[in-house]
Amino acid sequence: MREMIKGGNVGLAALSEDTGSVILSLNWSSATGDGDADVSVLLLNGDGKVRGDADFYFYNNPAAADGSVQLLGKTPTAEGNEDRISLDLTAAPADVERIVVAASRYGGARFGDLGDLRVTLADRVGETLLGFSIEDADVERAFIFGELYRRGEEWKFRAIGQGYESGLAGLATDFGIDIDDDAADEATAEEETADEVADAAPEAVEQAPAPGAEGAPGIPAQTAAPGILARTAAPTARVTGEESAPATARRPRTAKKKVTLPRVARKPLAENESWRAARLFPVSSLRYDREREMRATSVLLSVMTQVPEFGRRLTAAFGAPAGRMEAFTEVSLPHGGNAPKRPDGVIRVERAGKLWTALVETKTNGNPLKSEQVQDYMDIAARRGYEAVITLSNDVALEGSPLVDVKVDGRRKHKVALWHLSWAEVAHHAQMLIRHEGVGNTAHAWLLQELLHYLQHENSGCHGFQNMGPAWVPVRNGIDSETLCQGDQRAIDVVESWDRLIRQVCLRLGGELGQKVLPVQRARRGADQGSRRAAMADRLCEEGRLDAELRIEGASGILAIVADLRTGKLRTSIEIPAPDQGYPLSWAKRLVRQLAEAPADLHVETLVEGQGGGPRGTLERLRPEPADMLPKGGARITGFRLSLFKGMGSARGNAESGFIRSVDDAVDRFHSGVVAHLGSRPARRS
Fold first, then answer.
1. CA neighbor of 429 nearest in space, from 458, 459, 455, 400
2. CB 146 within 8 A of CB 158
3. CA 548 from chain center: how many Å?
4. Backbone φ, ψ for residue 156 (5° rounding)
5. 357: exposed, middle or buried (C-beta count within 10 Å: 0-12, 13-18, 19+)?
6. Contact present, 535 and 613 (Cβ < 8 Å)
7. How many Å from the N-terminal Cα to the C-terminal Cα in the chain?
8. CB pairs under 8 A, 24+ apart, for 165-168?
9. How high is the pLDDT of residue 685?
10. What are 351's strand-pairing partners?
11. C-alpha to C-alpha distance for 621 and 455, rounded to whole angstroms
12. Which residues contact 79 (CB under 8 A, 6 or more apart)?
């Protein structure tokens, strides 16, 4: 990997032969765990300006119609977050001379509060080619990390590291864009009601999913709308000199009209509840694993080819170009002198006469991937000049913990990338498109809805991570009998399963809300994921607890989850800071009003400066007497901690009595009953 210095440049062709499609990753860390930034991409012409409104890509406009740009979203790392961008340079319009990659913070936050600012660039197979670290960030609210630019037929990368104290507005203005965020003040008013927000963004509300609508399980109905409304104060963009929209049109900017699920579900025409709706992908008759694998592969690949937004969303992360996509199942491929191999599927993308090919290996119903099988497909792909092997299963891949071990022959010039996709990720992307971001037409929305119904059916076998593994019961028993010792590999296995479960909870909750939900991973600077999990396993042996934190975009704080294996209790909690102004009694009364619909057994604890904790009690007891929340002696209140407790399932699976189901239920109850009523953080501002 080439390490770049500020102002340095390099031609991509000198680093790799596979740079038609590249992945740019922007990284940062935060000591508090809640620092964040948003990436943006600008396409510039020879004059250094955007050609039009659609050349600005950010969280409300994440993908180009031609596939040249796609924001892939955030993933957690050992020390913070990684935000990834897929760029198909072969699809970039001929009059685009530069592609600027930037990031911005909001709410007055500065880049100097973040650490480890870095951008890396990887080729089609995921091999990191170059990196550039920014070490002089201070008061800037926006940063240009780098840019890709043409020199004849070649693309080159330049490390920039230029900051803007004026934030996203100042950065964008330099390239011919104005940023409108005149709705932000109204959206952040403390006493504004949900109805007032809805009036400010009627179009966004009309696109929200129906409460209790089919295909939207998991999160109670009242939590669907806030996920949409949280984006109504997002900045909108317009090209300088064009006629601007009226100031009252406060809605997220999009490149074109999108179709989402209707807000109100139609009344069914069935005579009674026993009538089942006809489905495009019937699933009730599936009985055997092989049937499930074949059906799931065919269903997924066919929808990917027919819904370009969905197919591109999945394949862009694997380095595929934007182009005409076709998919095949049960393809027979020769394997040396042995019997032919039959991967579950093949994906081919054609662009400008060139083919990108990936073999697909599918597992359902919790069946594990087999290393020898994946190794065969890697060898076949290498010999035939294919670009990738994609595995699909219920397991969620973790950084530093591969699901299968394969050997790569370094003598081969042609490189094959191995990628993994969880069924939970597939469902998440389908949810985001049909419920929040929208697709091109109603037929595409209907196809994605049918796919989602299929994946969520109990017979499909595509339910995501569903088993804590064989180490779960021995570890639980060892903690109960106090015989589990630090360094026990079984404890590390349980921690890896816990990480997979938390990652899946984030995918599911984020898909329901239309918000970014990410696990917060606090670790020593420089620590890798293996070291972090080993340390967490040692704490599990010593304290008998598993813990995690979730950052929900727009939420008033970090949602914490603690599973206490000694007491069999799950605790979900959130800490909210005390207001900067006003009186403590007013804070207490306002908190009680906000929690009018919260469960009566909610525990409320006042956080006091310099002390372990202040007054505490259940919401039921504190409602008539909010003054009981105030500490004696006038000690300074720093915030409040809200907690719910729930019995923990003991079984390792996802049955009604299982641990996984109990974690899902606890998070859902806490978010819908508590977090959704607390309002949000200040809206994003440039």
1. 455
2. yes
3. 16
4. -125, 160
5. middle
6. no
7. 34
8. 165/139, 165/140, 165/141, 166/141, 166/142, 166/686, 167/104, 167/105, 167/106, 167/141, 167/142, 167/685, 167/686, 168/40, 168/104, 168/141, 168/142, 168/235, 168/686
9. 34
10. 354
11. 44
12. 29, 115, 116, 521, 523, 525, 526, 527
Region of 127 on the Ramachandran plot (φ > 0 left; ψ -120 to 50 alpha; else beta): beta
Q: Bin 646: left if φ > 0, else alpha if -120 < ψ < 50, else beta.
A: beta
Burial of 27 (0-12, 13-18, 19+ CB in 10 A): buried
Q: Which residues contact 153 (CB under 8 A, 6 or more apart)?
A: none
DSSP states of 613-673: ---EEEHHHHSS-GGGGSPGGGPPEEEEEEEEEEEPP-BSSSSTTBHHHHHHHHHHHHHHH
- Interhelix angle 529-543/472-481, rounded to 10 degrees, is 40
Q: Which residue has the tokens 């009730």?
A: 284
Q: What share of the chain is helix, strand, coil (3-state, %, to 5)?
A: 30, 30, 40
Interatomic CA distance for residues 197 and 188, integer angstroms? 10
* Bridge partners (DSSP) listed for residue 357: 348
What is the DSSP secondary structure assignment for residue 415, as one 8-state letter?
-
**Alpha-helical regions (H) of 335-483:** 371-384, 423-431, 442-456, 472-481
Q: For 433, which DSSP code?
A: I
Using the 8-state DSSP alphabet, how is residue 63 labeled?
B
Q: Please list the rounded mean pLDDT of every run of 10 residues in the chain (686 residues).
A: 93 89 89 80 93 87 87 76 89 93 89 91 89 93 95 93 91 82 37 35 35 37 32 41 38 54 70 80 80 93 94 90 90 84 94 90 92 93 92 88 79 81 94 87 92 92 89 94 92 94 93 88 67 91 94 90 95 93 91 93 92 86 91 88 93 81 95 88 41
Distance between CA atoms of residues 165 and 686, nearest Å = 10
| Polymer length in residues for the chain | 686
Are 37 and 111 contacting, i.e. CB atoms less than 8 angstroms apart?
Answer: yes
| Both tokens assigned to 269 | 């025409």
Locus of tokens 């550039």? 132
Encoded amino acid at 262, one letter = P
SS3 389: strand
Q: Give the integer Cα–Cα distance in Å for 169 and 173.
A: 6
Distance CA 645, CA 599 (A): 11
Contact criterion met (CB below 8 Å) for 605 and 643 = yes
pTM (whole model) above 0.85 = no
Among the residues of 201-268, which ranges form H helices?
202-206, 224-229
Burial class (CB in 10 A: 0-12, 13-18, 19+), 678: middle
Check: CB of residue 346 under 8 Å from CB of residue 330.
no
Q: CA-based diameter of the chain, in Å? A: 84
Question: How far, in Å, CA of 278 to CA of 606, rounded?
Answer: 54
